[in-house]
Amino acid sequence: MPLTDTHIRSLKPDVKPRKYFDGGGLFLFVPANGSKLWRMAYRFDGKSKLLSFGEYPTISLKDARERREEAKRMLSKGIDPSDHKRQLRQARAIAERDSFQNIAREWHETRMAEFSEKHQGTVMYRLETYIFPAIGKTHIAKLETRDVIEVVKPLEQRGNYETSRRVLQIISQVFRYAVITGRAKHNVAADLRGALRPRKTVHRAAVLEPEKVGQLLRDIDAYEGYFPLVCALKLAPLVFTRPTELRAAQWKEFDLEAGEWRIPAERMKMRRQHLVPLSRQAMSILRELQKCSGEGKYLFPSIRTEARSISDATMLNALRRMGYQKHEMSVHGFRSIASTLLNELGYNRDWIERQLAHGEQNEVRATYNYAEYLPERRRMMQEWADYLTRLRDTANQKKAM
């Protein structure tokens, strides 16, 4: 007699497991713990087999009967329902394993390890905020260009141009990793090159005329404020590193006997060790600064706590207090000054680029080039410091006239 919902709800567990048949091989299995489990008995290739449909009431009587009919249709076509179910389960497991999200997390753990924690966090934030909600659960090999464009285009349309480019870059890097590891055949994100608006070149404000540079140096010398901050401003044009690399400089990185500053790879934008030859002028500033902060970790500790360095805003605000507006000078502008004037003075471009720590395309070469052109760079850095001294002295003389 076929089962009814009323009958099923009234069933109580017995000491021994019981089976309640509905017909066509379908029955409800009730073990001693009181569960109500759907089963279907059938034969395939002369063998008795059993198929599970789930638990009542999650799987209703109607659902169970529909699954029985579907299993019978498979049998009529020579398909084993149990094998079919197993294959679907395996396909779902593979789809989940090779989803964009899982591969992206694997890529992040494997390929982002050499980057700073801050950069790793930024990349993961973009993955979880912009990418995973849209395509995270999709098998990476099934994604197409239109799926990717639907992730990045809305960002661009909202005016988030840089974010849209960064997100597309991340997706492309994950795809390249998937291709390398055999989970995808093609990087569909690479086909979108040119699909987004081109990046606008951002020019860092800087005074570039020699006479104005001399005045800037004079203004820095005359600036009265927190001594480590004053030293940072005086060193900035002499070493022309990136602002973050300068303000977070640590005493352990300096060899004052050798006249060298070796910035470790983990603090560099390009993740390569960088060597800065120190001029006599830079050494003089450092020796004075050593009397103030030499017992601590940072050359330029925060005025509030020695546990961290001064901020970018601290240096920028000092320039503003000197009277330099946003369009006139930035902290990053010291690099522009050095790059522009050193080239105008006729120094070898390779020496300048190496000292600016710009990216090296050759990965093998980049690992070892921190000391490249070192004798030439030592001479250039000293001559550069002497040149800046002359510019500053000229500005002082004009002021005195």
Question: Can you tell me about this structure?
Answer:
The chain is an alpha+beta fold and 401 residues long. The protein folds into three domains: 5-93, Integrase, DNA-binding domain (Double Stranded RNA Binding Domain, 2-Layer Sandwich); 100-192, Orthogonal Bundle (DNA polymerase, domain 1); 210-400, hpI Integrase, Chain A. The chain is built from 16 helices and seven strands. A four-stranded antiparallel beta sheet has the order 1-2-3-4, covered by helices on one side. The chain has a three-stranded antiparallel beta sheet with strand order 5-6-7. A hairpin with a 6-residue loop joins strand 2 and strand 3. The longest helix has 27 residues, at 374-400. It is elongated. It starts with a helix and ends with a helix. The model is unreliable at 361-368 (pLDDT under 50). It comes from Desulfovibrio porci. Residues 203-386 form the Tyr recombinase domain. Belongs to the 'phage' integrase family. This is Tyrosine-type recombinase/integrase. InterPro entries: CB, DNA_brk_join_enz, Integrase-like_cat_sf, Integrase_catalytic, Integrase_DNA-bd_sf, Integrase_DNA_bind_dom, Integrase_recombinase_N, Phage_int_M.
In short:
The chain has 401 residues and is of the alpha+beta class.
Helical segment count: 16
CATH class of the largest domain: Mainly Alpha
> Strand tally, please?
7
Give the N-terminus to C-terminus distance in angstroms. 116 Å
Order of helices and strands: HEEEEHHHHHHHHHEEEHHHHHH
Task: Identify the quaternary structure here.
Answer: single chain
Low-confidence stretches: 361-368
Q: Which geometry do the CA atoms define?
A: elongated
User: Which structural class do the helices and strands define?
Assistant: alpha+beta
Q: Please tell me the total number of domains.
A: 3
Strands across the major sheet, in which order?
1-2-3-4
What is the assigned CATH homologous superfamily of the largest domain?
A: Intergrase catalytic core
Mean pLDDT: 89
Most strands sheet:
4 strands, antiparallel
Query: Which value, in Å, is the CA radius of gyration?
Result: 34 Å
And the CATH topology of the largest domain? hpI Integrase, Chain A
CATH architecture heading of the largest domain: Orthogonal Bundle
